[in-house]
């Protein structure tokens, strides 16, 4: 049975036509089945403040607004802004921001709207394939202001987010995301759910921020630096990748074999090494 596609969308409003743009990585969701399943997974409510990144033509936006939640959308394509304003003109719980999500200050939305909720933000997004990884890294930096995040991503990216040590897809993105959030892969989405149809499958993932392990941004930076360099050359041993950052003795002291490769190590191993480097730096400074 084919997946039902909803032909009614902003791009077909009378007098308006909007073509997907490759430079924005646009693939517009059309499947009503998938849309309903996404809304059910998010379970939006009237006490929520939801931030939708890249609402596109508003396929998911309508369901979010129906819940009574305050919805702040961040859209880069200026041609879509007037279409969204027309489509949702009667909704008082919508805020539209024309901005690049890679440069947007999400913390500024915490005080948006006098009657808006004061709790953490809930983030939703059909993230463009071409910027999904850098955007996830940016959003992880804001995780203290987020309650949860639900994203549609290329299935390969979701698999990397959820990957376990030793797998081919396990890498820097896996370690950094799992250090910051609980990762839950929800369901797959076929190319036929979009117009134009992408060449790859997508998937929905839920990220729930965890308490910060490191107490300062400087300490977080040490951890991030260790992880980044550890995976800089996948075929090299961690000894080679961390040359000048950590010695064999330091790695061995936290249970890391300097001759292993980074993809064999758990996230906790990188945390322990970062903790050691931070503590030794503090001792030198005193």
Short description, anyone?
By secondary structure, this protein is an alpha/beta fold.
Describe this structure in words.
With 286 residues, the protein is α/β, with parallel strands linked by helices. It is 33% helix and 18% strand. The protein has ten helices and nine strands. It has helices at 32-42, 61-66, 81-87, 132-141, 155-162, 172-180, 217-230, 238-241, 248-253, 267-285; strands at 28-29, 49-53, 70-75, 94-98, 121-126, 146-154, 181-189, 194-195, 202-209. The longest helix is centred in the C-terminal third of the chain and has 19 residues, at 267-285. The radius of gyration is 21 Å and the shape is elongated. The chain starts with 27 loop residues before the first strand and ends with a helix. The model is unreliable at 4-25 and 114-118 (pLDDT under 50).
List the SSEs and their pairings:
Blueprint: E1 28-29, H1 32-42, E2 49-53, H2 61-66, E3 70-75, H3 81-87, E4 94-98, E5 121-126, H4 132-141, E6 146-154, H5 155-162, H6 172-180, E7 181-189, E8 194-195, E9 202-209, H7 217-230, H8 238-241, H9 248-253, H10 267-285
Parallel strand pairs: 2-3, 2-5, 3-4, 5-6
Antiparallel strand pairs: 1-8, 6-9, 7-9
